[in-house]
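pls ignore typos typing on phone
adenosine-5'-diphosphate + seq
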Amino acid sequence: MVGLISLVSLTPRRRPPKPPVNPNRFLDNRSPPPPSDDDDIDRNRSPRPKASDALPLPLYLTNAVFFTLFFSVAYYLLHRWRDKIRYNTPLHVVTITELGAIVALIASFIYLLGFFGIDFVQSFISRADSNDSDRDYLVNEDHRLATCPTPSPIVAKLDPLPEEDEEIVKSVLDGAIPSYSLESRLGDCKRAASIRREALQRLTGRSIEGLPLDGFDYDSILGQCCEMPVGYVQIPVGIAGPLLLDGYEYSVPMATTEGCLVASTNRGCKAMYVSGGATSTVLKDGMTRAPVVRFASARRASELKFFLESPENFETLAVVFNRSSRFARLQSVMCTLAGKNAYVRFSCSTGDAMGMNMVSKGVQNVLEFLTEDFPDMDVIGISGNFCSDKKPAAVNWIEGRGKSVVCEAVIRGETVNKVLKTSVASLVELNMLKNLTGSAIAGSLGGFNAHASNIVSAVFLATGQDPAQNVESSQCITMMEAINDGKDIHISVTMPSIEVGTVGGGTQLASQSACLNLLGVKGASKEAPGMNSRRLATIVAGAVLAGELSLMSAIAAGQLVKSHMKYNRSSRDITGATTTTTT
Ligand code: ADP
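k done
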């Protein structure tokens, strides 16, 4: 019997009860306790041990044993009770067998109550604890909570909303108002964002308190930069410079969260400055788009290629293409076949715009025009990836996309020693073995540099460029050569695909526009269309040159890890931060 009782105490519940819902969980601003083993949403951990694991028999057999025991002893005792009444035997006189039966009845009753009864009782308790608002329903039922890999603290803070907004939040939560339609319904972008973030917090049960709402012009992004906003991310902007480039001094804004990056670029700028600055040349300026079209035969696809690449047809195509914008000017058409499919890479200048919209419209015009001569042409997609946008591709590396820029500087030997704390010979050797040979061994595609993408990304973010175009814009080969009998060093970066604009996209947003203004390249150029965007591309290349110089020097001098440990880990004092960043 002791065994039976101890079995009862180990008896599991059929399934763990749902944790009771705290009606104030969203209002509770305190940190929640760390997730316990009872946390229903913790799916990532190893399965928790269950009491049923301790049973000598499988659960279903144990249940069967106790069911049988309960009903058989109950039947036996009732039978005995009836006999005692019939034969006038006193009820309190019990035999050993009857005593055993009573104990067995109690034990099996406790087991069955423990197994089947607790959930039932708890359902009443939790119902009493919870309120039945939409919010609790949604949070409990929200499958995203269950699929979230690691539960994060549920501390969403509910700001009191005006009653009218509260109603709208509820309508968003119950699906009566689509979240995406808030701006058009309310006609107030800030209010729409505030209602959406409130609904989001209630829906997910997770706080986004640290993501600011105030201090941003939500009207400025409507219909062009970001849909369904709930706030904005803050990225610190540091300044590297002066960057002495083509006789001008630039203070280069860099938006980054990587310690050392700005300091390192700044050091490179200094080395360039004291050596007389850098010189840049824009080799090419053309944005590309390449649709894919299909024919019934490779012969017909070939005919299209010959038509498009024929010099006699270029003028006609250019007239049709250039209708897309007063700034779009068709430069070239290149057609490549894959069987009966043709990939036509159009390249055009786009003024001060980065130009993706412009080139796409021009391509659309030409495709419509081509249907007259090629009615059997099946346009599969306006982009066939031969463009090639936001993907590493040899075509950009070889042919260029956006602005192709080469930037060079001569750094005097004494500057290499004093500012960069290394030597010309060490830099040249490291460049050969790392940026050239090492990248060749890695099978790199345009990655013959130390960290061009670090600088490109930071300047892109600060100036409102499309950060995804960092992929091809960071293609760069860094060359270093000892000159003047080995005393000085010639360094250059060649970047064939810098895709930047100073109008359109994110460039018109207040912060990004301020950074463009700092560089003197904000908006459309008054001198000639495209001057601002080309100058921005050269600034990107010049900053990359500074970054390459500084990081390569740090590696040559063996300072990389030391510097990172100092400025990326603990120190808040960046005085004297000069050296490195991540490669
Ligand atoms: P993108 O083509 O880079 O996606 P957008 O289409 O957003 O750029 O912005 C380009 C728009 O800016 C076009 O409508 C164009 O007419 C206008 N625009 C005004 N000034 C210029 C300029 N100097 N260069 C290019 N576009 C300009």
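The CA atoms of residues 33 and 153 lie 8 Å apart. The first helix runs from residue 2 to 10. more later
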